[in-house]
Amino acid sequence: MELSGGCLCGKVRFSVGSEPRVHYCHCDMCRRATGSAFAVLAWVPTESLNWTAAMPTFRRSSPIAERGFCSDCGTPLSLGYDASPGETARHVGTFDEPEHLEPRYNYGSRQRLGWVCCGMDLPHRDTEERR
Residue limits of the CENP-V/GFA domain (predicted)? Predict the structure, then answer.
């Protein structure tokens, strides 16, 4: 299986060669990083990721994580935790065919906004990380 995607302007492109593990993330860091009520993240082994055009710009978003984005259009593209260098996340909306990437659980559930109702029937996991 190979999936591809990229940023809004097309400068940054990627492909992944494995089945992603997809979830909703409700933590306040993901909300601020995406400018949305939650993020939808697709985790893949780092070795299955290939940047097929320009690489994103990376910035440290917390003491434990780094995020990638397009320096031209600003699209948020990736998330990686220092403690898990063997996996990296891509934002589901950046995939060319996101309709195939259905979330299977919620993360950061205690920080979920009260009016967000998608994925309520999925398993919940929490995080202690906050901005």
Answer: 3-106
